[in-house]
Amino acid sequence: MKPRPTWWKTLIAILITMVMLFPLYWMINISFTQRRSIRAADLYPKDFTLSNYSAMIHTQLPYLGTSLLIAFSVVIVTLIIALPASYALSFLNFAGSRSMNFILILAQMIPAVVMSLGFYQIFNDLGLLDSIPGLILADSTLSVPFAVILQTAFMQTMPKSLIEAAKIDGASNWRIFMEIVIPLSRNTIVTTSLFAFLWSWSDFMFASTLNAGGGKMRPITMGIYDFISANNEEWGPLMATAVMASVPTAVLLLVAQKYVAAGVTAGAIKD
């Protein structure tokens, strides 16, 4: 049988990809365009300039540094909590372990705006408002439940005989966790770390509610608003900042894509 032509499918895929990537291209285009020429809406930066990136470097670097600090801290906190919790849910029998995943799913369903209102009162009482530790703690509440669910799904697919053999050889739970479970969970660890980083890096709800008065210690999602006021919008520097803020996430996605592809499907099939 003669194979059917598939060129039209490729064409449709290219067109859809172009439509999806056009906002990114337009952001880059505006970032290299002089302010006086932005309203001309040229498809390429005819009035080319690097002044927008110069303005970004002089004003936004502290915010970028804060976002990096928060994002990496959230990743560390997420792994410290999620990995032992996942091991316990997968291999240790304790009261309430079966209902824990359902509770974690319910936690994922709570809107961030609802959580931010509750955090505001709690953080105000604890003195954590407008602070980096407060944002790290708040952002971790989004990533930890997801990480526990994903890690538990993967760990439950590990051969039980492997764990039992280690116990017969006299290995403690801690040794099994560190020398067997952690190395085998590399893909899901990278996946959960990446999602935790992305969620905290792009967070606006908690940042605007819990750290609005943080000054130069605000994350980039708040610092970018320095270019927007009631009577003026600096679109060039704003787009330049958006481009630079997209670089860390793009690099991480490119580097970790093979681990993410394996990690998000971990636990989908049980032996």
Automatic annotation (TrEMBL):
Pfam families: BPD_transp_1. This is Carbohydrate ABC transporter permease. It is found in: Cell membrane. The chain crosses the membrane at residues 7-28, 68-90, 102-123, 135-155, 176-201, 235-256. InterPro entries: BP-dep_ABC_trans_perm (IPR050901), MetI-like (IPR000515), MetI-like_sf (IPR035906). CDD domains: TM_PBP2. PROSITE patterns: ABC_TM1. It comes from the Bacteria. Belongs to the binding-protein-dependent transport system permease family. It is a multi-pass membrane protein. SUPFAM superfamilies: MetI-like. Residues 64-256 form the ABC transmembrane type-1 domain. Keywords: Cell membrane, Membrane, Transmembrane, Transmembrane helix, Transport.
